[in-house]
Every structure is written in C-alpha cells, then in structure tokens.
Specification:
homodimer; alpha/beta; Peroxisomal Thiolase, Chain A, domain 1; 2 domains; 13-stranded mixed sheet
Chain lengths: ~350, ~350
C-alpha cells in the first residue's frame, strides 16, 4: 500500500500526466477576466438546441471534442471517461458520452465533480488500467437555475449571498506521460455538515469541508501552505472564501497569501453583477482547464493545490429541511521537472 | 499497460478480493425467493424516518453498518467508499456517507451503479491506492416511484412492461486479499441508444447495451458463455431478459443455458404481481450481495459474470422526448482457488 500516505491521501509513485485540456464557455464567461483563455465561446446560450439541458450536453460534447482535436486523438483512443454534472441523473454527461461513443463512468460530486474525475482518472492511469482518460464536467446557468431554484421566466430576486452558475465545461486528458503538468497527490474528502440549510448560501455550506480536506492534506503529506504557489478552491465564492480563511486561521494555518477561489476568479464580480461569484461544476472545471493549467505550463506557478468543493443537496432535501453538507477533494499538481 | 486487454476490459494481474457483503431489504423483498439470504429486513418502509428519501438513506446506512459489523471493522478502517443511488443528486448515498463519516466518491450509473462501484473500487485496490473499499448502492420503491413516475397516492395503473423498484441496499467490502471470491476482469460499458423512449419499458431500453458489453467482454477476453456457470444481468426484467437472449442469438452467441437476471430472481413475479420483475440499483446490489456471492462461497458456482444494466434518463429528458439510452458494466468473479 505504498501509494497511500496518512488517512486520506494518495501519493502517486509515478505522477500522473496532464497531457492537455480544453474549456468552452458562454457569453458571460467570455466577458470575465479569464475569457481569453477559453478555447471556444458559444454566444448562443442554447447552442442551437431547443432546451437548456440539451445545450449543456452540447457544451460538454464540445469541450471533449475540442480536447480530442487539440490532442490529435479520436474518441476511440480514449479508454474511459469520468464525467458528471449537476443535472438530475447526470443526463448532460451521459448524453454527451453517448454521442462521443466513449466508455463512461458517470459521477456526482456536486461542484466538486472535477476533482472527483481527476482523482478517479489518476487512479485508473496510476494503476495501469488505462492509457488515455478524459475527466470532464459542465454546468449551465439556465439548466441549473431551472432545476435548483426558480424558472428563469419567474425573474426571482437573487439574495446577496447567491452565486451565479457558470455556463461552461472543462475537459482534461490524463495519461501515464507526455504532459507538462503532473498530478502527484490526491486527498479524498469527507462529508462535513455544519448545519447550514440556506440553498442561497453555498459558500458557507462548503467552507467547512474545505477546511477538513485542507487539514487532512497538510497532515497526511507534511506540506504547509507555503509549499504551494497557489491554493485554489472552486467555488466557495466571495463569502465562502472569507469564511475559509477565517476557519483556517482558527486552526493556526494561514493560507491567505497563496489562496484564491475559482468562483471569485471567473467573473469581474462587481461590473458583471455576480453577487458572491461563480459556481457550478463548470466553474472550477473551466478555470482549471483554461487558466490554472496555463499558469503551470508557462511556469508562472509550479505548485498548485486544486480543491473543488461541492454542496450536497437537492431541491427536495432542502424542502424537507435537510442540512446542506459539503465535500471537497484536493489535487496537487506540479509543473513537470520544476524544482518543487 | 499490462492490466488492459482488448478495447474495454481490464484483467487484474492480482485479482481483487471480495472480503464480505451485506444486504438489507424491505417486506416485499423478504417475501421473495431470496428473502432468507438478506442480512436484515425492515418491515417498516419508512425505517422510522419521515420521508421516503430519508428511509432510503437509512437502508444504505444500515447495509454499510451491517457490512462493517460482519467484517469486524469500523468506519475509520475504510479508505474510501463508492456509492450511488437513483435519487436526484445522489442524496441517499451522500447523506448515508455523512453519517458514516467515510470518504466518499459519489457515482451515478442508474441501475448499473453497483457494477460501476465494483469497477472503481477494484481499480483503487488493484492500483495499491486503498486497503479497504466499500461499494454500495440502494433503491427504494417509494422514493423512486415518486421521483420517476407518479406519487404513490395517485394510484396510477402500471403497464405490463413495468418493473418494480426494489427496496434494498447491498454493500460489498473489497480488499487486496482475504475473501473467498475474487474479481479477475472488468469490462467498461459504452452507452447504447436504440431509440426506445418508453419509461415503462426499461428492459427494452437496456438490453442492447447488455449485448454491446457482453460482445466486448467475450471479444476482449476470449471467454465464451460456457466459461461461466452463471451470467447475471441486473435488472432487465422478464421482457429485457428475453430480448437479450434473442439479440445474442442474432450474434450467434447462445447465453441462455447460463443466463439469469436479478430482476427476475428477486421476486416470485407471478404471486407477488410484479409485472416484468424487479429494478433499481438496489436490485442487482442486493441479489449480488445476498445471494450470488453466497453461491460462489458455497461453490455452487465458481465462475460468475455479473453485469448490471442502467437506463439513462430522467423524468425531464423523457418529457423532452429524448431516447432512453442504456449502459452495462461487466464484472467477472471467481471462487478463490477453484479450477476456472
């Protein structure tokens, strides 16, 4: 069991290579500070389809297709894909995998799904079970609002703590070698429930799980925040980001010099009027695929801790008075060959 | 990449051990032919809770707890759990994992979820990434009917092709060694869409995907049906079972002497008035955990191909006129040390 360190962490004896990535997004995402890093922008929120759900499925299909094109691979070269989304029964992922004809393992981790896909994909590669693995997730503002909150036509007012579901998809190609970035460690999250039950305050619901996973990661690996150039959660948003720093301070761990959050990075929150920032599986997936991996490739950073967080709830569980629990999975990624 | 054979199959150099299993079910399941194999029966469909969804979560919690008791392990001994269910946002699994405090990877594969959990758990063990892994899924007749079809109070008439969602949960403990049954091969399924759109005819929707995965399994491994004592799908039901045999006949592969289906096994279909038989993640999970592994342990069979099938749809995609696609993942399990 020499790949396992501590209680929740896997250290890959041979790091997993991130060979390539692709990100596609909508108009709002193109207008944010990271817009220029996206591979493809779809100004039409329907992507030529007749429902928001089909539109989201096309987002994911296009992200994977763009990834394959960039990688000069065809769908039949992919051994397996790990895909998920926020839509009931993960239909966006399944319908896009159907059209791509790639063997799929459907996963659900709310907004932590991209981390889960990277974890499972890394284990598949690291165990010698696959040569080419795709990790992909998506979200769409309109399909999510409709499903989790109100129909768009209702024009419901958004509370100040609310976040804006990102219309985007990110896809990553993992392989035993060949990329400029490498996954060296993964820390599996536990579910943390601190009694939050406000579905418009996801940041508060998820921050405690981020604390839990960060503590486990540092404890298991012996790393400290200064061993990273960047620690990025996705997507606690403005409020959750502040909460995480405060909660970590109570643990006497100061992450603030190295810390940012995908939900705070993807939009110009003030001018784009996004309240507490971005959210949704597609938020951390696209920020990671479009921007964070670019920082590593360009050696602007060499050591990244990527930790998407998920809020575990459904409209039904909220109506039934259940708390919203959180989960966060961490992925350590380094620039290949850098002194780390 | 010496663990991979053919296009879709993994052959574990060191087989993965199935150390233990547990199955819990409801009253109807206890009255079926496999009732006596269940570890625990809950005559109250609410399990003391106040909603069907909470009841399902308790089913899963109790399956895992029973598994831990039987294995003389505590929750903290489990490195990771792969869990899923049919309920929106997989809340039954997440809420049960929250109470168990076990690191969770949430998965969604409709009724194929138990196979997916066994696949991913086997890769985690086989790669040296975990010592103890739990694979668990559940379904509940009342939570599923409410979500996918009609409120129970409505008393809707069930068409003859309909199946009955099983109220049960099955949990399996995987480890590098220590059990009497071993997973030697897994074949990852592709999504197959043959244009079925009737949500009350899941068997027809899923049978083509079972054909696809069976063909891939036989082609990748060189095995033929006679290399198995039992090939068990879950849960095509009466109609889907007949369809699968017919479709395989067209491929000149006769599986009928070795073949059965979890949906046809769990109930006495005639006397229990279950139309086309059982369905739901909990069907194949509980038949496998309660009965099929027992057959292997007792050496009544030594070579099993377990292949749960999933129907990929949601009430919304059906309303939007989407087809119901299918997926099937196959798991080859042998009695340890038997001549196979």
């Amino acid at each position: 069991m020499n790949n396992r360190i501590g209680k929740q962490t896997i250290c890959f004896k041979t790091p997993i290579s991130i060979v390539n990535s692709a990100a596609v997004g909508g108009k709002e995402e193109s207008e944010g500070p990271l817009g220029k890093y996206f591979d493809r922008i779809f100004p039409d929120p329907f992507l030529g389809e007749d429902s928001w759900e089909r539109a989201e499925s096309r987002l994911q299909f296009n992200a994977v297709n763009t990834l394959l094109e960039k990688s000069k691979l065809s769908a039949s070269d992919i051994d397996m894909m790990f895909g998920g989304d926020l839509i009931n029964q993960c239909t966006s992922s399944y319908f896009s995998a159907r059209d791509l004809k790639i063997p799929l393992y459907g996963i659900y981790g709310a907004c932590s799904t991209m981390a889960e896909a990277l974890h499972l994909g890394s284990m598949a590669i690291g165990g010698g079970f696959a040569n080419n693995v795709v990790a992909v997730t998506s979200s769409h503002f309109c399909s999510s609002e409709k499903q989790f909150r109100f129909p768009l036509e209702y024009g419901g007012q958004r509370p100040p703590t609310s976040q804006w579901t990102v219309t985007a998809s990110g896809a990553v190609l993992l392989a035993p070698s060949g990329g400029e970035c490498e996954i060296t460690h993964i820390t599996t999250g536990k579910i943390v429930d601190m009694g939050i039950s406000d579905a418009s305050n996801m940041g508060a619901a998820m921050a405690p799980s981020a604390v839990d996973t960060l503590k486990a990661h540092f404890s298991d690996t012996g790393f400290s925040p200064s061993d990273y150039d960047l620690i990025v959660t996705g997507d606690l948003g403005v409020l959750g980001k502040t909460l995480l720093c405060e909660l970590m301070d109570r643990e006497n761990i100061d992450i603030s010099p190295y810390y940012d959050d995908c939900g705070c990075m993807i939009y110009d929150i003030e001018s784009q009027d996004k309240h507490c920032g971005g959210s949704g599986c597609g938020c951390s997936a696209s920020v990671f695929s479009a921007y964070l991996l670019e920082l590593l490739k360009k050696r602007k950073i060499t050591r990244l801790l990527f930790m998407p967080t998920g809020a575990l709830m459904s409209p039904l569980t909220c109506q039934q008075g259940e708390n919203i629990a959180g989960i966060a999975h961490a992925v350590r990624i380094v620039a290949k060959g850098a002194e780390v």
